[in-house]
């Protein structure tokens, strides 16, 4: 089976974008892991307020899209 030049170009473009997305995910996970102790200490020592509740509510959804991408890329 022969592939056209358009197919090869599309595959390379997709591969490049997946590499960029994966490297961004790796940097984000590294940054989160390095600052987790400081963030956890700050959250435990501060008093409960509306801002703290909003922060605790908004942080987990930020990491869900990246977690899914890592799972998908690792199973390929």
Write the layout of secondary structure elements.
Elements: H1 5-45, H2 50-74
Helix pairs in contact: 1-2
Note the beta-strand portion.
under 5%
The count of DSSP E runs of length 2 or more, i.e. the number of strands, is 0
Gyration radius, rounded: 19 Å
Indicate the low-confidence ranges by residue numbers. Answer: none
Mean pLDDT: 79
Number of helices: 2
Q: Main sheet?
A: none
Order of helices and strands: HH
Overall shape: it is: elongated
Helix content: over 70%
Main structural class? mainly alpha
Distance between the termini: 22 Å
Structure commentary:
With 76 residues, the chain is mainly alpha-helical. It is built from two helices and no strands. The chain has helices at 5-45, 50-74. The radius of gyration is 19 Å and the shape is elongated. The relative contact order is 0.10. The model has no long low-confidence stretch (mean pLDDT 79).
Question: Tags for this entry?
Answer:
mainly alpha; 76 residues; single chain
Briefly say what this structure is:
The chain has helices at 5-45, 50-74.
């Amino acid at each position: 089976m022969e592939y056209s030049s358009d197919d090869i170009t599309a595959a390379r473009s997709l591969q490049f974008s997946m590499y960029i997305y994966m490297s961004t995910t790796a940097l984000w996970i590294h940054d989160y892991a390095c600052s987790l102790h400081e963030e956890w200490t700050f959250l435990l020592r501060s008093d409960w307020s509306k801002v703290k509740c909003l922060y605790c509510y908004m942080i987990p959804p930020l990491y869900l899209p990246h977690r899914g991408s890592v799972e998908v890329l690792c199973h390929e």
